[in-house]
Give the backbone structure.
Amino acid sequence: MRKISLFFLLILILFAVTYLGKSSGRIPPLPSEGHPVPLPLPEIKEIVDVVREGESLYDIFLRHKIPAGVLFRISEASKPEYNLRKIRPFRSYIITKLREPENGREILTLFKYSINDTSYLKVVNRGDDFFAERIPVKYERRPAVLEGRISDNLITAVGDSPEHLKAAFNLAEIFEAEIDFLTELRPGDRYMMLIEELWLDNVFKGYGNILAAEFWNNGKHYEAYRFDLGGRPDYFDARGNSLKKALLRAPLRFRHISSRFSTRRKHPILKIYRPHLGIDYAAPMGTPVSAAGNGTVIHAGWKGSYGKCVIIRHPNGYKTYYGHLSRIKRGIRRGKRVSQGEIIGYVGKTGLATGPHLDYRVKKNGKFINPLRMRVPRGTPVPREKMAEFTGYVQSLKETIASARKRNSTLFASE
């Protein structure tokens, strides 16, 4: 009887252990026959380098043993975003390759190229094809004030380093419809600009947009504020008037006038007196020439003594002429619509010309006029319904200027 009781007790204990194990979710481990064998992992190799002088993408890929077929596929995928035939020396690139452990074959998985200081090209291998996109560089933007006084010209007043040169060009572009920076600057003129400093990983990389600017020229005061009207930022004065005009007085920047508008000028080659109904801007061979305003190209090619020439028809009866070009930009042809500031050609000395320069002429209703004295309508002002927003924004910029000036004065005092 005692043996039977012990037997039933043992069965009860086994039943309890089994039931409790299942109810708690614990499942006894399966018997294992040794440890799993680790699989070999692919090796990832990253190449960081810069484009060398005279190198093409073919040379780069050849140096890093990347097949020509991959080069073709990457170039084709990139064309809508950037033409890789235009890679420039001293720009950085990154190549990421994956080496398969089974056969040692290398596969390019990622290619990055620094297009400029604001964007880079990223090409990803998705197996069946390559996918390319142009990605903006995400800088930290810090407002800063640059100001100075003119002694000779704008370049020397702002600075001749690459980042200061860019800022000077942008400042001149803002006020170019109001001030001719070649003929109208005076010693003692002053400028001030609230500009974005671009920082990446706490390293200064240059200047971005000019948010606000002031210029004092020959006793006159000019103001400019960058304001976004539905995705189209432009510059306006404090009253909301556009600083852009329908036509620019000069389609080149920081040049010098070699011949002015005249009804009687001795031609340097023909040695006879005849009218010179335009402005000659002497500039280095190949200097870009921009369209003076929005319009339609009505001539692009050779035009007698003008040499290679572009003529653009603009609204309100205006036509502009660009003569003696070394070459006309590809795609600029009769019927092509162009925008103000768009490059249409490059300075040369084709036709009757003694040296590289641009012969710039303007017609109004069929009659040539002096580009330096013409009066053309302004662009569209800030709409009435946006004026309250614009006024508040201008006030906030002025407060930012005051704050930035205070920081600068403290910094300079400590130095």
Remarks:
- The radius of gyration is 34 Å.
- The chain has three domains: 43-136, 140-236, 256-369.
- The first helix runs from residue 2 to 23.
- Helices lie at 2-23, 57-63, 68-78, 154-158, 162-175, 387-414.
